[in-house]
Amino acid sequence: MPDRVRVKIDERELELSNLDKVLYPDAGFTKGEVIDYYARVATVILPHLVGRPLTRIRFPNGVHQPSFFEKNAPAGTPAWVRRQRLPVPGSTMNRETLDYIVVDDRPTLVWLANLAAIELHTPQWRLVDGQAGEPDLLVADLDPGPGAGLAECSLVAVAARHRFEMDGLRPFAKTSGKKGMQIVCRLPGGRTSDEVAEYAREVAEDLERALPKLVTSRMTKSLRPGKVFFDWSQNAAAKTTVSPYSLRAAPRPTVSAPFTWEEIEGGRVRPLSPGEVLARIDEHGDLLGPLVDPSR
Description:
about 30% strand
C-alpha cells in the first residue's frame, strides 16, 4: 500500500499515512484498522464527543512503545478542525491557556486516528459560549485492586445503580476497555463540578459502609487488594474519563463499551474487540444514547 493515501470523508479531503503500520503487535492490528474503526463508529461516538474539549493519548509507534498525552492542538492542525482556547490552571508546562481540539464531525475523528490518537478522553461538561459549562454527566470509575476484576466491578456497579436510582438518577454502565468499569449518569443542570464530586464521594462512602469487604472510597493502595476502588474524583472539572467507544491501549485492541444491566447482573461483562462493538451497535444501537438524548 502507498505510504500516503488521499481520501474524502464527508466532503473533507484528508491525507492518511502508513496505514500498514502495526499499532497492536500482539494482534497485528494496523493503523489502517484503527482509522477504519473510528470512521465506522463515528455515528455513535460523536454525540458523546461533541462540544467537549478532547485529551488524546497518542501511540505513534504502537501500544508497546512510549505514548504521550496531548491536549493542545498539534502543529499542522487543519484550519477546519474546531479549536477552543481554554485556561489550564496548574499546567506543568506553565501555560495559561491551551487550544483544545473539539471533535464535532467524522473528518476530525479520522484525522486524529491518522495521528495514532488511540485513546480519547473527555471531561464531564460541554462548552457553553466558549467556556466550561455546568457538568452534564456524573462518572464513577470502578477500579479493581489486586485480586479483583470485572466480576467484582459488576457487583459494585449493580449496588451503585440502586444507590443512584434512589436519588432519581438513571445510571448506565460501560467497561473501561481495560480492567475496570464506569457508571455514568446524566445530570440536570444547577450543580458545579465540585458539588457533583462531593455527591459522588458521599455515594462511594455509603457503598463502602454497606460493602466493606468489596468497596473502598479511598485511593490508598494498601486498602485495595480484593476490593474495587470507587473513584469519585473523576467529576472534578479538570479531570477526564475515557470516552464511550474509545479504543484502549491494551496488548490487543479493546473498546470502552456499554453493557446492559441484564448482562452485568448475569456476569456477562468482558473486554470487547472493535469488531464485537460494531456488531453490537448494529444490533442494539447506542446503549448509552439516553446520556445524550434524554427523550430515549
